Request: fold
Amino acid sequence: YAEKLDSYEYPGNYTGVWYPFYHPYTIKREPSGIFEKVSQCDLKCEDCGYCRSLWMKYYGFDDSIKYCLDAYQAFYKKDYASSAKLFKLYIATGKTVDDHLYYHFGMALNLCGELSAAASALEMAIKINSSRWIYYNLLGAVYRSLGLDRESVEALKTAVKLNAGEWSNYNILGNIYFNSGKFREAVLMFDKALSLNPDADYIVKIKE
Reply:
């Protein structure tokens, strides 16, 4: 059974273990011996490092991967400043970086108020993988915060093409149109957002 599992699909955990097992490389399948040792471990990862050392040895990682692992851990602890710093250190090593990492780097930077850097990180995520609507959604929101309405609208329209059923795409577009005085377009976007998410009652107040 263990040998049939992907590396982060452990019994009772179907959402994935981000720390310390995530890495921005193609996931292989670990031998059952590693699975058994890790599944029996009851120590706190941040206080130990034993399981991480098993993975690093198996994949042949050097110590630079610690930046990546710790960056994700900091992110999920909502320590966004530390997360952004660690992501930046990892990227600087020149190791392989995937779109998922750039996306989280961009989110951390955005939450720290580093908008220009966040936009650059999200643009890199899209350059690697242009099929994820959420990348365009967040990039559109960041562009909007930077006052780049034209770029924001373009990003959000792409998000709509990739996922026409996501209400937040229309909500952000509605706010952009509203703030630029394009009230007809704003109402159309707000109506669409409400049709997809009737619980967003604050949109009704904006329309009024």
Summary: Residues 1-27 have pLDDT under 50 and may be disordered.
